[in-house]
Design the sequence.
């Protein structure tokens, strides 16, 4: 039996992880799990530990482990700590020796994509055998490539055999946010249910709800959701990034600058800041071509 299926004993912790409930994952009781599910559950806990900002702790706890699953976790943790060279080198070695391992495929794909090696990431992830997380990551990568057609193809194929999966619902909602139109509302329903249900609410789901509200033009509602996140997690970089976008749209210059400063302090290499810097430089170059000439 698939441990992540509706009947599997890892369904609860698996869903909690993908809903962004990392503390719930860390608190999950694994004492009664069957032997075959102990390692997958531990991998989810380690990933939650990394996501919660304790990558060094995750590395320290697996020093004596030799299985490729744990080596993949170590690479992910190293990358999150900024040691990108060591992380990518480790992933390269794992791809050579253990590319059929599901954890290596998922975490190796994450590291490779983060390092800008998209084709290598897709090649590794494509080796999966019906792994929904691999499908979700492939979908996300295609969206980053602006290949909505390929992302939609992945989701529709997965929907045929995993129609009740939370992960498929989330991935389908990502695609819907890019397709637009009525799909915005469908995506909103998914994220709203996750964000407003006590058993599934998290910072991540609230940010997703806010983004869907923003796309629907419901700016006050988006602002309320982001404020709720920032009250509890003032340094959450995704909430800050979306708060910058929202403040810009709403014409709130002072709030925009405040959130820019906060994001710069929290994560100076955030994708939004890098993109803003690039666009600013391109604008200055273009404007320079039309500088007024003094007679």
Sequence:
């Amino acid at each position: 039996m698939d441990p992540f299926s509706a009947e599997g004993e890892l369904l609860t912790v698996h869903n909690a992880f993908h809903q962004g409930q990392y503390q719930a994952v860390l608190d999950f009781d694994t004492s009664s799990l069957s032997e075959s599910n102990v390692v997958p559950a531990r991998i989810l806990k380690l990933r939650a530990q990394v996501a919660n900002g304790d990558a060094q702790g995750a590395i320290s706890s697996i020093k004596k482990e030799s299985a490729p699953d744990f080596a993949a976790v170590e690479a992910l943790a190293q990358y999150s700590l900024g040691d990108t060279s060591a992380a990518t080198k480790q992933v390269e070695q794992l791809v050579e020796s253990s590319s059929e391992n599901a954890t290596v495929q998922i975490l190796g794909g994450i590291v490779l994509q983060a390092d800008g090696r998209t084709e290598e990431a897709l090649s590794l992830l494509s080796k999966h055998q019906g792994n929904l997380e691999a499908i979700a990551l492939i979908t996300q990568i295609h969206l980053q490539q602006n290949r909505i057609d390929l992302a939609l193809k992945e989701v529709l194929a997965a929907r045929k055999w995993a129609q009740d999966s939370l992960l498929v619902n989330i991935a389908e909602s990502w695609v819907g946010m890019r397709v637009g139109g009525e799909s915005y509302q469908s995506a909103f329903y998914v994220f709203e249910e996750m964000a407003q249900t006590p058993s599934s609410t998290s910072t991540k789901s609230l940010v997703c709800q806010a983004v869907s509200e923003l796309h629907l033009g419901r700016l006050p509602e988006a602002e309320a959701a982001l404020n709720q996140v920032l009250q509890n997690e003032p340094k959450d970089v995704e909430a800050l990034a979306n708060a910058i976008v929202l403040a810009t749209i709403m014409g709130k210059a002072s709030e925009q600058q405040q959130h820019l400063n906060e994001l710069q302090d929290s994560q100076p290499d955030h994708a939004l800041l890098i993109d803003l810097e690039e666009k600013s430089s391109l604008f200055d170059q273009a404007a320079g071509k039309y500088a007024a000439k003094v007679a």
Remarks:
- The chain is about 70% helix and 0% strand.
- Residues 195 and 205 are 5 Å apart (CA to CA).
- The mean pLDDT is 93.
